[in-house]
Specification:
disordered N terminus, alpha+beta, elongated, 2 helices, single chain
């Protein structure tokens, strides 16, 4: 039986993928308190960013980039904050003689409306690259 199932199942070799975040909500006493939380989240995410690629003594590298338009008012009483944080990690690849880079991201959409923070998003990765 196992042989029959494995014969019809495709090989699991993904070049990229993502996992959705379970949507969540959190109540605040009022809209300004909710927006203050968005501002704090934006500040914390900006603090993760590296100034270019950081090379370590062992030859590995690390880089963190933030893609966002910051906090925005949607014109209907809600404040939005969407972000994507990229993590790039590199290491010397002996077989190719190049730097092999992995790429992963954390994507979030957040909205404060009537003092309630709603959040959704996904975590994902893309195919390795070489430099």
């Amino acid at each position: 039986m196992v042989l029959a199932i494995s014969a019809v199942m495709p090989a699991m070799a993904a070049a990229s993928g993502s996992v959705p975040l379970m949507p969540s909500t959190r109540a605040f006493p009022n809209q300004p308190a909710c927006v203050a939380e968005l501002e704090l989240l934006h500040k914390l995410e900006r603090a993760e960013v590296t100034d270019g690629r950081v090379r370590r003594s062992d030859g590995t590298t690390r880089q963190v980039k933030l893609e966002t338009d910051g906090l925005r008012d949607n014109g209907r009483g809600a404040t939005l904050y969407a972000s994507r944080i990229w993590h790039h990690h590199g290491w010397p690849d002996a077989a190719s003689g190049k730097l092999k880079l992995s790429h992963s991201y954390r994507e979030r959409q957040r909205m404060c409306a009537a003092g309630t923070l709603s959040e959704s998003g996904r975590d994902g990765f893309t195919q390795h690259t070489f430099e």
